[in-house]
């Protein structure tokens, strides 16, 4: 969210679109992994909303996009603590890439790893982990 905000000059429309897409992807992941996903819906949405507004992850993304921080500086920032989103992106990417998991791709009509249905997660992984 911070990267989107920084790269679009704080465009409300861009942040809104990102929030909608990000939330959809998180709901998809929750339904994929949780037996009773509805129990997480409220807390998940609330945490996502607050984090996107002013959380450490948004701050970190904003600083990265503005060039005020670099990935080489790591995800433990003095005065901010650990930016948990970086390790979370890596963990979910690895989890959803496992050979033992597959879902039917609606357009390709073939079985794919669930991560293939998560373009935001894939992009964040490319930026934050693969660099």
Automatic annotation (TrEMBL):
InterPro entries: 6-PGluconate_DH-like_C_sf, 6PGD_dom2, G3P_DH_NAD-dep_C. GO terms for cellular component: cytosol. GO terms for biological process: carbohydrate metabolic process; glycerol-3-phosphate metabolic process. GO terms for molecular function: glycerol-3-phosphate dehydrogenase [NAD(P)+] activity. SUPFAM superfamilies: 6-phosphogluconate dehydrogenase C-terminal domain-like. Residues 1-129 form the Glycerol-3-phosphate dehydrogenase NAD-dependent C-terminal domain. It holds the Pfam family NAD_Gly3P_dh_C. This is Glycerol-3-phosphate dehydrogenase NAD-dependent C-terminal domain-containing protein. The lineage of its organism: Eukaryota, Viridiplantae, Streptophyta, Embryophyta, Tracheophyta.
């Amino acid at each position: 969210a911070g990267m989107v905000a920084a790269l679009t000059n704080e465009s409300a429309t861009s942040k809104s679109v990102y929030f909608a897409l990000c939330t959809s992807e998180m709901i998809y992941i929750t339904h994929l992994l949780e037996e009773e996903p509805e129990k997480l819906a409220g807390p998940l949405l609330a945490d996502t909303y607050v984090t996107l507004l002013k959380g450490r992850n948004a701050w970190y993304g904003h600083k990265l996009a503005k060039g005020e921080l670099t990935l080489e500086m790591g995800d433990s920032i003095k005065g901010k603590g650990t930016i948990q989103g970086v390790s979370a992106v890596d963990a979910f990417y690895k989890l959803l890439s496992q050979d033992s998991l597959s879902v039917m791709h609606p357009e390709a009509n073939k079985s794919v790893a669930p991560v293939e249905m998560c373009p935001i997660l894939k992009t964040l992984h490319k930026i934050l982990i693969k660099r």
